[in-house]
Write a structure and sequence with these properties.
Layout (H helix, E strand, L loop, with lengths): L6 E5 L5 H10 L3 E6 L10 E4 L5 H7 L5 E4 L7 H22 L2 E6 L11 E3 L9 H18 L4 E6 L2 E3 L13 H5 L4 E3 L9 E3 H13 L8 E3 L8 H11 L6 E3 L2 H7 L21 E3 L1 H7 L6 H23 L1
Parallel strand pairs: 1-2, 1-4, 2-3, 4-5, 5-7, 6-13, 7-11, 8-10, 9-12
Helix pairs in contact: 1-6, 2-3, 3-4, 7-10
């Protein structure tokens, strides 16, 4: 079968899913995107409008697919995750099982909890230390048990925090670039000086596509997706500022101030339980990926340059309004 004859169905076109769609199309694949509205669907992709909480929508949208990608992430609240993530997983397991498509799942590392010696391995035991991590652990079990039972062919790709072009909801995204470009202090809510892995969004998208075509013995498990050596968060932010010719002034926000601000910024109510990821080294181990699939992750300086170029185009109008 010609590569262009394969149909890939992507559920969720946020900052990783949209890049994945574009990458799959450059490989010559047919790509179908499933979401509730047409907004954000890359040009050239087929659109199926529907609610992923409806199993019938998922099964119908997956017809004819060789691969299904789960890149959906609900709002960053524990209540939303508890209500929706297990349901999304169940519906996509059903879609994969009934169509024979491989299910490639994008996941974070919350289910793995605190790392031993600062190193996080994708195959570490599930040991969540947060409410959100408990939800992720439940969904991981749900997915891998479905694979083991023969209900669907599943493989999971794990990544830490993101950065890169299109990364609006990242640590160097909406809360970073407008302030930096406007010459204002950048507010931070985590530790800054421990090594912390940031996965480059294009690398994540490319790796998910690799998992789609990997041999069957690569399925039924989680892989840590490829990543560059971990910088500190301060070093990443400083590199971004240097790339756009700005001086960086950081304004750390302590836990008391976060609680006060959470009255008007609900997102801040959800972050304290994840502070452990920045309170000590938090470094991803992608050695199994490199040993199996080869290749290297994008160097930080290359990734930062591309991110800065995107940020100038995307955020400078916002920054101009702040001056």
């Amino acid at each position: 079968m010609r590569e262009s004859a394969h149909l890939h169905v992507v559920f969720g076109v946020g900052q990783v899913g949209s890049r994945l769609v574009e990458h799959l199309m450059t490989l010559g694949h047919r790509v179908r995107v499933v979401k509730r509205s047409r907004s954000g669907i890359p040009k050239g992709a087929e659109a199926v409008l529907g609610d992923v909480t409806d199993e019938g929508v998922c099964v119908s949208a997956a017809q004819g697919a060789s691969t299904i990608y789960h890149c959906i992430n609900p709002a960053y609240t524990t209540s939303e995750w508890r209500a929706l993530l297990p349901r999304y997983a169940a519906n996509l397991i059903a879609a994969a099982g009934r169509t024979g498509a491989r299910l490639v799942v994008l996941d974070n590392v919350y289910a793995l909890g605190r790392p031993r010696n600062g190193i996080v391995s994708a195959d570490a035991p599930l040991a969540p230390v947060s409410r959100k991590g408990e939800v992720r652990a439940r969904v991981t079990r749900q997915l891998l048990e479905a694979h083991a039972a023969g209900h669907a062919r599943v493989v999971i790709g794990r990544a830490s925090d993101f950065y890169g072009p299109g990364g609006t909801l990242t640590y160097v995204g909406d809360q970073f670039w407008p302030a930096l470009l406007a010459g204002k202090p950048v507010r931070t809510i985590t530790g800054l000086d421990h090594p912390h892995t940031y996965h480059y969004i294009p690398d994540v998208a490319d790796a998910l596509a690799q998992l789609a075509s990997a041999p069957d013995d690569a399925t039924g498990r989680a892989w840590m997706l490829p990543c560059a050596p971990a910088p500190t968060t301060r070093a990443l932010m400083t590199a971004c500022a240097r790339a756009v010719g700005r001086d960086l002034t950081l304004l750390p926000t302590g836990i008391v101030m976060q609680r006060l601000l959470s009255v008007v910024i609900p997102f801040l109510r959800e972050t304290p339980e994840m502070a452990y990821q920045w309170a000590a080294p938090f470094v991803m181990d992608d050695a199994p990926w490199r040993a199996r699939f080869g290749g290297t992750a994008t160097d930080l300086d290359v990734g930062v340059a591309a991110t800065a170029a995107w940020a100038r185009a995307h955020y400078e109008p916002v920054a101009d309004a702040r001056r």
